[in-house]
UniProtKB/TrEMBL annotation:
Belongs to the FGGY kinase family. Gene3D superfamilies: 3.30.420.40. Coiled coil: none annotated. Residues 256-437 form the Carbohydrate kinase FGGY C-terminal domain. PROSITE patterns: FGGY_KINASES_2 (PS00445). It comes from Microbacterium hydrocarbonoxydans. This is Xylulokinase. InterPro entries: ATPase_NBD (IPR043129), Carb_kinase_FGGY (IPR000577), Carb_kinase_FGGY_CS (IPR018483), FGGY_C (IPR018485), FGGY_Carb_Kinase (IPR050406), FGGY_N (IPR018484). Keywords: Carbohydrate metabolism, Kinase, Transferase, Xylose metabolism.
Amino acid sequence: MRCTLGVDIGTSSSKGVLVDATGAIVASATRAHRVSRPRTGWVEMDADVWWEEFTQLSRELLAAAPEAQVAGVGVSGMGPCILLADADDRPVREAILYGVDTRAGDQIERLTAELGEDEIVRVGGSSLTSQAGGPKIVWIADEEPTAWSRAERLFMPASWLVRRLTGAYVLDHQSASQVSPLYDIDREAWHDEWWQRYAPTIAQPELRWAGDIAGAVTADAAAATGIPIGTPVITGTIDAWAEAVSVGAHGTGDLMLMYGTTMFLVATGSETLRSPSMWTTAGAFAGTRNLAGGLSTSGALTAWLADLTGADYGQLLAEAVESGAGARGLLMLPYFAGERTPIQDPNARGVIAGLTLAHTRGDLYRAALEATALGVRHNVETMRAAGADIRRIVAVGGGTQGALWLQVVSDVTGLVQQVPETTLGASYGAAFLAAKATAEHGDAPAIEDWNPVARTITPDPGARARYDALFDRYLRLYDATATVSHELAADQRGAAA
């Protein structure tokens, strides 16, 4: 049985899947893990865990289907992450994670002053924010000179796995475009002048597209993983883009909405759209461009409430349904870990407005769901204002398993959402890219055949007026509380130090 294996390294877990030539899932496996938060605004992870979990997942998947013949391996991972390694591929420190890690504020200000914001946007497509990889590289150079003195290579989770599996030193264009300001998006190449200025001791990874074959499994990697020597391995990409591939949401006019620990949005087009408050990136495939955004908390917020109240999700969902639209007069800002797009404010903080002694945990849970939906609407409206042509919404991720969250997002945004049959996520997309790259006799699979639409969520027109008013208050609440939130954020940093 011809299969492809896909593994994704996520924020809270690593997931693996073995898929046959028709797209059917033969086996799946998961390994939960935790990131490290050594200080307020810092989010890190030990890269050795990525490889360890990959080897565990691959062996478990292959043991579950001994008849499988692995034709190719696909990889993806959270990002953009910054992992620097020495000449022997030993990490010089833990990997610094994507936009949820906000440590490089001083470096963002410095690089913006040195290079000019207009020039940064011209070259890379976006202003520098906590999502950008370049300032985090500079942070290591500034703050950890001993680690910096050993650094010679740059990796992200997917490219780290490729290196361990094949020995290839590559990075996909999509990931590279988020190492701003070191990538030129129109040239689809590293920006040599700025690379030599800010990362002179780091060798530039060779640039490939996500579905390109990077190399083949080595003897050492085969011994560690159980995958046969010589099996092709694709270059891979960041998880949100692999997830978009997994549901076919990578064509012009598509918007992928990923429900997870954080919320992620990827709009695809053929033109480079530049927006000061969103992320302009290369696409997963040649000739495509993306305008992307992300909420810093979504599923993390509901998990926090579940832990805080001691209630299980079933109870909270039932009580949130009973609460009804508007959460009986509550309004929440979901900025419990700062916020990424479109406000780009790492010092924003969560706010719950309208609380009374009569409110219940169900009202709070409903308000949290509505807060993430309001954040999605803010992103979508900002994308459209920048010129994004959004024609189709595809919902993916673990949060699509529940009906209420999906319905709230459709009601708040007024958008129809399509939910595919398989919402396994980025690992499934990585397996598809591997199947496409290794297809025999040009018989490449189509994702529409692998993963058709299973259901459609339509907005309730009766909720529109209420949510339009709530959205207006949502925007005004941030403006009204930002100064106090910033002061509190400064106090929190001082306490942590």
